[in-house]
Specification:
The complex is a heterodimer of chains A (359) and B (339).
Chain A (H helix, E strand, L loop, with lengths): L21 H34 L6 H26 L7 H18 L5 H26 L3 H22 L4 E2 L6 H8 L1 E2 L2 E2 H19 L1 H11 L1 H6 L4 H27 L2 E2 L6 H11 L11 H20 L6 H36 L1
Antiparallel strand pairs in A: 1-4, 2-3
Helix pairs in contact in A: 1-12, 1-13, 2-7, 2-10, 2-11, 2-12, 3-4, 3-5, 3-10, 4-5, 4-10, 6-10, 7-8, 8-10, 11-12, 11-13, 12-13
Chain B lengths: L14 H9 L4 H17 L6 H26 L7 H17 L4 H25 L4 H20 L9 H8 L11 H17 L1 H11 L1 H6 L4 H27 L10 H11 L11 H20 L4 H34 L1
Helix pairs in contact in B: 2-13, 3-8, 3-9, 3-11, 3-12, 3-13, 4-5, 4-6, 4-11, 5-6, 5-11, 7-11, 8-9, 12-13, 12-14, 13-14
The chains are: A mainly alpha (359), B mainly alpha (339).
C-alpha cells in the first residue's frame, strides 16, 4: 500500500507508507521503531553468543546454557515488573531488598513448616512482595512523593527489616539442608530440558507484555508516563494505575525472591543486594525510556538476558570477570545514546510529514 | 525579577514546598530536628557527648558531607549524579595502583584529582551535550567506573601507605577530639554555601532547577554550567576517594560501594527537592550530621545495626512526605475561600 493521501509520494520512504490516515501511519512508524530497537538487542545478543562460541565451543553446552537461563530468570522477572513502573515515569529502587525479604520469608516458612506445598510457598513469597509494593505505591500515589526518594527509603527499610527478622529469629542463614526436598527440586526442575524457573520468567514476560499491549488500563500506563497531567485531565485514574503498577512490581519482586530461594537454596540477609541497579539497567538497555511513556517488557527481558550473558561470556572469552561491570556500564550508555538518536530522528520524520500535510 | 508571580492554579503541587522553602530559611526544620536529637541523645545515651565519640561521629560523616556539597548543587539544578561512589572507588583503586608502581603520594594525589575531573566531565558531556537523562547516564557510569576500578586493582588491597599520611587522616586537633580534616571540610562548606546562596551563579542554579527554558531565555548558559558542576563533583569525589583510602589505610576497588545512596539520602533529608529548584546547603549538612548521629547513638545503645537501615529509610521518607502533606493541607485551606 503506497498510496499516501497527501504530499509527494517520492519523498516518503517505502517502509513508512502504510495505512490510510496519517495518525495511523505515525503510530505504525513508532511501532516499527520499537521492533527495530528490540531486534537490535537481539542482534547484539546473538553476536555476543556467536563470538563466544567461536572462542569457546563449550559455551553452548547444555549445562552452561541452563545455568545462564537460571540466572537470567530472576533478573527477567524483576525487569518485567520494573518496566511497568518505569513506563509510568516512576522507578522502584527497592526491588533488591524486596527480593531479599521475600526469599528469606519463603525460606523461613519452609523451615518452620516443611510440609508446605510448593505452590503455597510461591504464593506466600509473592504476597510478601505485593505488600511491599503496596507500601511503596501508597506513599508514591497518595502522598505524591517522588518514587525515587520513596523507594530509596524502602530500599533501606525493607533490607533492615529483613536482617532484623533474621537476627531476632536467630536464623542468620538458611541452608539447603534446612529446606524441604520438594522445594529444592523446583530449582533444578526441567521441562523438555528447559529449566522450569526460566519458563516461569517467560510466562511472566508474556503475561505482562499482553497486559501492557492489549488492556485499556495497560495502555493508560503509557499515557501516564508520557504526560501525567494530560492523563489526569483525560480522566485516567492516575493514582490507582500507578499504585497497581507498584503492587504488581512488588509481587513480581516477591516471586523473584522465591525463584532466588529455589535456585541458590542458601539464603542470608544479603540476597539481592544491589540488584536494583542491574534491573534498571536491563530495562534501559532494553529500550525502556527512563522518563516513562515508552518501551516494552520484551525489550527489558532481552536486556536482562543480554546483561546476564555478558557476565557469563566474559570469562569464556578469556577476559577477566572484573570487566563485567564495566561492560554493563558501557552498554547502558550506548543504549541510552542510541535511544536518544532514534528519538530525534523519529521526531524529525514525524515533523517533516506533518509539515508536508499542512501545506 | 517576577519569577514568582505565577497565579496559584498554574502551580502544580510539587511547587508548593519550594515557595515555602524561600520564606523559611531552607533546612531550618531538619536543623531544629538535629539540635533536638543531639540534646536528647547527649542526656540519654551514655558516652554520646564525649569528645572521643564526637570525633568518631565526625570522621564517619566527613566523606558523605564532602561529596554532598557539589552533589547538592547538581540536585538543585534538577539533575543527579549516582556515580559518585564509583568515582571514589575508581580513584582509590588508581591511587593504590600508582602507589604500587612507585609514584610518591605528592604526585599521585593531583593525578587522581584530575582523573576525577575527567570522570565527571564524561558524565557532564553525556548529559549536557548529548542531552541524555542524568539518572540513566550516571547509573551507567556507576557500573562503568566501579567495573574499571576492579579492572585496575582486581580484588586485591594496597595498604602500605606512609604512616604520616594515614595518621593525619584520623588525627584530631589538639585534645579536642575534633578531626583535623573537619577544618578543610568546613572551608569547603562555607565556600559552597557562599557560591550557592550569595552569588549570581547560585541563583542561576535555582533558576535552572525551576525552569530550564526560562533560565536559558534569561541568558544563562545552562549546558556549560551543568557540565562544570559534573566536573567539580568528579574532582570532589576523587578527593573523597583519596581521603577514604588514607582514612582506612587501604586502597580497594570496592571502597565506598553504595555510598551514593547515603549521600543522596542526606541531601533529600536536608530538604532539597529531587525535582530541583529548592533547598539549601545548611539543611544538607544537618541531614548528613543527623544520619550520622542517629547511627552513632543507636550503635552506642547496642541497637543491632539492622535497625539503622530501617531508621535511615523511615527518616528519609518522613522527611519528604511531611512537607508534602503540610503543603497539601495548607493548599486546601487556602483554596476553600476562593471556590
Amino acid at each position: 500500500m503506497s498510496a499516501p493521501v497527501t504530499g509527494t509520494p517520492a519523498a516518503l520512504p517505502e517502509e513508512l507508507a502504510a495505512p490510510e490516515r496519517t495518525g495511523h501511519r505515525g503510530s505504525a512508524l513508532v511501532h516499527r521503531l520499537f521492533v527495530v530497537r528490540e531486534l537490535g538487542i537481539l542482534a547484539a545478543l546473538v553476536l555476543l553468543v556467536v563470538v563466544t562460541v567461536v572462542a569457546n565451543p563449550r559455551f553452548l553446552s547444555g549445562q552452561n546454557v541452563r545455568d545462564l537461563l537460571l540466572s537470567a530468570a530472576i533478573l527477567t522477572v524483576l525487569a518485567a515488573g520494573q518496566t511497568m513502573v518505569i513506563v509510568t515515569r516512576n522507578v522502584d529502587l527497592s526491588v533488591g531488598s524486596v527480593l531479599g525479604l521475600s526469599a528469606y520469608a519463603t525460606g523461613t516458612l519452609l523451615v518452620v513448616a516443611p510440609g508446605t506445598p510448593v505452590v503455597v510457598a510461591v504464593l506466600a513469597g509473592t504476597a510478601v512482595g505485593a505488600v511491599c509494593g503496596l507500601l511503596n505505591g501508597l506513599v508514591v500515589a497518595a502522598a505524591g512523593v517522588p518514587s525515587l526518594v520513596v523507594t530509596l527509603g524502602t530500599l533501606y527499610a525493607f533490607r533492615g527489616l529483613d536482617s532484623l527478622w533474621a537476627s531476632s529469629a536467630d536464623r542468620l542463614q538458611i541452608n539447603a539442608a534446612d529446606l524441604p526436598s520438594g522445594f529444592k527440586a523446583l530449582g533444578g526442575a526441567r521441562l523438555l530440558g528447559v529449566p522450569v524457573l526460566f519458563l516461569v520468567a517467560v510466562a511472566v514476560v508474556l503475561l505482562v507484555g499482553w497486559y501492557l499491549r492489549t488492556f485499556r488500563s495497560g495502555r493508560e500506563l503509557y499515557g501516564i508516563g508520557s504526560a501525567p497531567e494530560a492523563a489526569r485531565l483525560s480522566g485516567i485514574p492516575v493514582g490507582r494505575r500507578v499504585l497497581t503498577a507498584f503492587v504488581v512490581n512488588g509481587a513480581l519482586a516477591g516471586l523473584a525472591g522465591v525463584l532466588y530461594a529455589a535456585r541458590f537454596q542458601t539464603l542470608d540477609t544479603t540476597a539481592g543486594t544491589g540488584q536494583e541497579l542491574f534491573v534498571v539497567a536491563a530495562a534501559v538497555v532494553g529500550g525502556v525510556a527512563i522518563f516513562g511513556g515508552s518501551g516494552s517488557v520484551y525489550g527489558a527481558a532481552l536486556g536482562a538476558l543480554l546483561l546476564t550473558t555478558i557476565g557469563t561470556a566474559l570469562p569464556q572469552l578469556g577476559l577477566d570477570p572484573f570487566w563485567r561491570d564495566a561492560a554493563v556500564g558501557a552498554l547502558i550508555l550506548a543504549a541510552i545514546a542510541l535511544d536518544r538518536a532514534l528519538q530525534l530522528r523519529l521526531a524529525a520524520r514525524l515533523r517533516g510529514r506533518n509539515a508536508r500535510r499542512d501545506r | 525579577m517576577t519569577v514568582d508571580t505565577a497565579p496559584a492554579p498554574a502551580a502544580p503541587a510539587p511547587a508548593a514546598p519550594a515557595r515555602r522553602g524561600r520564606t523559611l530559611p531552607a533546612g531550618s526544620v531538619i536543623t531544629t530536628f538535629l539540635v533536638l536529637f543531639l540534646v536528647v541523645a547527649a542526656f540519654s545515651v551514655e558516652g554520646f557527648a564525649s569528645t572521643r565519640n564526637a570525633g568518631f561521629l565526625l570522621l564517619d560523616v566527613v566523606v558523605i558531607a564532602l561529596i554532598a556539597l557539589p552533589l547538592t548543587l547538581i540536585v538543585v539544578t534538577g539533575e543527579i549524579d549516582l556515580s559518585v561512589a564509583s568515582t571514589v572507588g575508581l580513584c582509590s583503586a588508581v591511587m593504590g595502583r600508582l602507589w604500587v608502581a612507585g609514584l610518591p603520594l605528592e604526585a599521585i594525589v593531583p593525578l587522581v584529582l584530575v582523573l576525577g575531573g575527567v570522570l565527571g566531565a564524561v558524565n557532564g558531556f553525556l548529559v549536557t551535550r548529548l542531552g541524555l537523562p542524568s539518572l540513566a547516564v550516571t547509573i551507567g557510569t556507576l557500573a562503568l567506573y566501579r567495573g574499571l576500578a576492579f579492572v585496575v586493582l582486581g580484588d586485591q588491597a594496597v595498604a602500605d601507605f606512609p604512616r604520616a599520611w594515614t595518621t593525619w587522616a584520623i588525627s584530631s586537633i589538639g585534645s579536642t577530639g575534633i578531626p583535623t580534616v573537619v577544618v578543610p571540610l568546613l572551608v569547603l562548606v562555607v565556600l559552597t554555601g557562599v557560591v550557592l546562596h550569595a552569588t549570581p551563579i547560585g541563583r542561576s542554579l535555582y533558576a535552572m532547577g525551576n525552569s530550564e527554558d526560562a533560565a536559558r531565555f534569561s541568558g544563562i548558559d545552562v549546558a556549560r554550567t551543568k557540565l562544570w558542576l559534573f566536573v567539580v563533583t568528579g574532582v570532589v569525589s576523587a578527593l573523597g576517594g583519596v581521603y577514604w583510602t588514607l582514612r582506612y589505610g587501604s586502597a580497594r576497588a570496592d571502597n565506598a560501594t553504595g555510598l551514593e545512596l547515603q549521600v543522596i539520602a542526606a541531601i533529600l533529608l536536608g530538604g532539597v527537592s529531587i525535582f530541583g529548584g529548592s533547598g539549601g546547603l545548611l539543611g544538607v549538612i544537618a541531614g548528613a550530621l543527623l544520619l550520622g548521629s542517629v547511627r552513632n547513638a543507636l550503635q552506642l545503645v547496642n541497637v543491632p545495626s539492622d535497625v539503622l537501615n530501617i531508621v535511615t529509610g523511615v527518616l528519609l521518607i518522613t522527611a519528604v512526605v511531611a512537607p508534602q502533606v503540610a503543603a497539601r493541607v495548607k493548599g486546601r485551606r487556602r483554596r476553600r475561600p476562593a471556590s
